[in-house]
Amino acid sequence: MAKITAIGHLGFNVKDMDETIKFYTKALGFKYGFTIEKDGKPWIEYYKACDNQFFEFFYGGSGDAPAAGQSYAHVCLEVDDMEAYVKQIEAAGYELDIRPKMGGDGNIQAWVVDPDGNRIELMQMSPTSKQRTC
Question: Superfamily assignment of 9-63+74-133 in CATH?
Answer without folding.
Answer: 2,3-Dihydroxybiphenyl 1,2-Dioxygenase, domain 1 (3.10.180.10)
